[in-house]
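Troubleshooting entry. Yesterday's outputs looked truncated, so today I'm pasting the complete records for two proteins to confirm everything comes through intact. If either block looks cut off, that's the bug. Protein one:
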Amino acid sequence: MKNVVKLNKAPSYRFVIWIVLTIAYINIYMGMQVIATYATSIIEDLGVSNTAISFISNGTTIMLALFSLIGGAIAMKLGGAKRTMVIGTIMMLVAGIGFLAHPNTITQLVALRLLQGIGAGLVNTFALGIAPWFPAKERGIASGIETGLYGVGLAGITLILSYFSTLGLSWSSGIGTFLCIGSALCLILILLFYTDIEKKYGVSSVDELLETPKETTSGSNAADVENLPGSYGEMLHSKGFWILFIPIFAYCYLVYNLAFSIPAVIMELGWPASTVTAITSVTFVGTIIASPLGGIISDRVFKGRRAETVAIAYFISFLFMVLVVVVKGASVGTFSLMCMIAYSGVTLAAAPVWVLPASIFAPKFFAKGLGVMLFITNIAGVIGITISGVVQDATGSIMISYWITAGVALLGSIFALIFAKTYKK
């Protein structure tokens, strides 16, 4: 460990890291959507069922979750985050090459997606874990802009793959081309511009570089530094971990389930099919604005008290999920706005909810702790989608699972308030 030279302000190199990690983050989640985008073509070409497509998507998400969980531990074995991300990116690149070879069986498709999911998981913990690179007072905004671009990525992958189709590329060629180009770009950026913070500055967090680090965390939701868990055992005995468990669980449960259920709810409420697509498109536009806004509110309005922002965001989502169903006779514009706010409430929480783990884990344990949180939230998404699909098939209605999703939003809000009260300075 090199001698630490104290600085008056955070190094500008953090913005280089932010660009590299944000591109890697967007590439992961754009890549996760390729099967859903090409689902119809895959079903027709391979003769598989919708259930098989769902299984492939869930299997990839589980690999993403599992290797996000152990990514921090693997990084310690390999000698740092950079080497781990390089290996993960190469795996996604190899998966892309596999798709270019035109897989023609469900077994080949599953194998390639599992490889992609493993690679994505190895990168994911560090791509989303930008908190150590920014002072506490800047983390919400930095994370908010990064997660806000998630919405841009989801819209972008549809446009990119549609363009590939106009060029005459098959579904496998389209997926392979995207994965190869995206992964190659990320690999180059990581190799040329990324350096592990411990090797660059000899610290685990930028706050340790600053001459007055206490000022950067004043008023934030944080436990006493000396009491922060630095191992899995200490984490499991930490009150903060178990309180934050619910808001973290709620995040992907809500993100995945609302994306799945809102279009079905709109149709079940009697809106014409021609209107459903328009309302759905407007619904997801709000994510681009809401995520950065959540970061600004948590950093500037609440002065780093991010749990309060999460609680408000989840409650907004809960409230408007209720209004979407109970308000009768609304115009298309009003109904679209309610749907947009219901979904945007969740993404309003994106920045603060992913910065909060930095306040309950010791800096040296942050990557491992964040990996646990990513595992929890991605598994929650799989659980939620599974519940929604089973309940809808059994009852013929989306409403029961929709109300369960609303309940998760309310529960997430309550536990975020409990966290805020527990760690109020």
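Protein two, checking that the full record survives here as well:
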Amino acid sequence: MRDWADGDLDTEFERRLDGLLADLCPGWQPAEIPEPYRSDERFRAYERRNAKRMHLGDLLTARPDLAAAVADRILETIACDEDVSFNKQLIRPVLNAVGRRTVQRSLISVVETGPAHKKVCAVRAWYWSQVTLTYKSWEALHEHRPTQASRTADDEVADLRGQYRMACLTAFVECEHPPTREWLAHGFLLRAEYYPANLHDLVAQARAIAEADPQRYKELLVRDDDGTDMAQVSFGPG
């Protein structure tokens, strides 16, 4: 079953980038790439989108007021960005401009109501939207003792993590497209105690789907932690 393939959103993504760039920095154009790569249209398009994303991200990082003014358009663009790494170039400045709750609510909405491919982009973006737990030593990391400040920041969005978990669970059960399900599986776990009673049947259905294909869903089947995936060790003060 083919529901989407990576690359399907390239045109919409670049159109949204172009609209933002035209309004925020009219006249800017990405540099031409040198030969021998210039004759490879696919590579040229990839590099062109990367240059536009980077330029826009740098502009929004330098101007949080500007990022806040166009936040809705940036979030719509992020929902079309298929790149699992470079997408952070737009996510980070909009997080800084409008806050984590606004960004995460938008991503949850996409998982709940967006088309399959944009659900996948939202899951990919969620990774970078999370709080980074900070540990003062490797020992603290191994013992799961983050700094109080980072733990508090993570706790402040625990309710949104719960909403995201339920959105991914529901979408996973409703979807019949394995590649979409694989990405949605990153967003929830199969422990009924994390869900209200009215969703326990969905948890059972999701478990049955995962157990029918244990190689594909091996990480989902063993996941038992619902915290952030982001961590760093910092030996500085604080």
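Both blocks look complete. Sanity check on protein two: The chain has two domains: 1-129, 132-233.
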